[in-house]
Here is the input.
Amino acid sequence: MRDEGGLHSVPLPTGWDEAVRLEEDAATIPDPAQVDVPEALRAEIEAHMAKYPDRHSATLPALGAAQRVHGWCSPEAIQQVAAVMQVTPAYLSSVATFYDMLRTHPAGPGYVYVCTSVACHLRNAKAVYDAIAAEELEGYEVREFECLGACDMAPMASIDGRYVGPLSPDDAPELVAALREGRQPFPGRGLGDRE
Amino acid sequence: MKETRILLANIDEPDLHRLEVYERLGGYRALRKALLEMTPEAVLHELEESGLRGRGGAGFSMGKKASFIPKSTMDKYLCCNADESEPGAFKDRLLMQKNPHLLVEGCIIGGLAAGANKGFIFIRGEYSLQADILDEAVREAGQAGYLGERILGSEHSFDLVVHRGQGAYICGEETGLLDALEGKRGNPRLKPPFPANQGLYQGPTLINNVETLCNAPIIIEHGADSFRKFGEGNSTGTKIVSVSGNVRRPGNYEIELGVKVRDIIYGLAGGLPEGRELKCFFPGGSSAPVLTAEHLDLPFTYEAMAEAGSMLGTASMIVVDDSQPLVPLALRLAHFYRHESCGKCVPCREGTNWTVKTLERIDRGEGTPMDLDILEQVQSNIIGNCLCVLGDSMAMPVASMLKRFRPEFEQHMEEARDRADRDAFSAPELASVEEAGAA
Here is the structure.
């Protein structure tokens, strides 16, 4: 049963409140012949594996690549990475649940990370986040994010990796409208825009 | 007051991230000198002599760290820690974005000093722009023969890989970084063995921050003595200070270590907004205990900050003005560390959660005077009791806020309780309760 607030103020990751399926065998390393992997994804993962003395080091880039294809680290995405890397799906899930940028729920495909950490907090970041979140932007994962390393442009947000700031709550409608229309929000106000 | 720009000397040069521009301004000269005119021992000696201390937070001597790497024939590695995630820190972002070749050159020199032939730049995944720029710089450097087999005809070979993280503060902890680089959850490891003996893939590993490695080419080119001319005592050289929070001109400023804190906040960063007074500041990122106006005239050095009960850390100065209530700030800070705790050690995992819950309770108006004592106890039970310092990084600043501003916490608690009481009852109800209380 899902705990709605109450005892756990930290939201539980998917699956933590589900019973273990004892009657099922543990998933093993998938047979590469049994799993269809998009050719470009396979090539990207193999290129990552070749860069390191140990292929396991490619786990983070490989999951990132699979997420770009599938939108999130879905069971299918995990299965494909596991087949190419020849590791168990459980190992990949253990990694995927650890990192903030790897999604364990369907979301996106785009993202708007609004920094609400200490330095941005001092400049009213929560109001900026609330204003953007209130717009209900589809196709984007809008979330509060911990320090993004751009306190000089606080309060700021990362829109698919492009840093934009400083933002005010009044910027929210234009930001959301631009993303809905497929325009770049606030040209000239992004990090590295002038180069 | 003026900046002392050495690392940032050419930072405004257009297209500095391109190899040809970097070379035109004297780039890769230090590498040539290190490879063709010096022995690896001499390079290591020069780094040690410079007194350069790690710029990533701990402030440990870089040369000494490199000297711990055993001189055996086993595979050794260099890791550049570019996982800059400390709230308040954004100096490495600037260096990597504008001057990536300085870092590449620093990595090659660091690899030479450590005897490593393979290097990794572990950059946080959120810095995608900077990672792309670094990728391009590594490619250019490889094409020009600065990376690969027998660089510039010397005996030294070195390969460099840019590795993107996926968003986890703990990967900035050196052993957490190693686990993440090996493709695991970024849990810190038990030390010893230290990474210098047993690090990446069990091999001896030198791990240094971006800014630290960027100093290496400067030290090699101009010599340790000229580097030591800058700074004060054991805090040698210059340091990039990232100033943020309630100041007029937030940004990166390069200063000579030893300048007054006041000159940084009120000089370079333009002071606080009109009509505002300083309440407190974090001298070295959100992990550093807060200091107050009485510390403004201290010299900004590793030693002076430690003596004042804080630390220089990453030199990320977050300035807090008098309009900011501290309870929400402490809560925001604790929230960060709770979110980022890897969960391996109980004091950190539970302590950060307790701190958040206690502060939330106080902020909601459900706090009792005992909560402040509990808060204090929780902090002291975290410090020094975990494998890494993530828990301490919350406990130290929160404890310092409590120590320096306890009356404000008490007042906030009282006001929140009053507010909660008022919200809980309608006005006539409240009046009858008050009447009953008076009777």
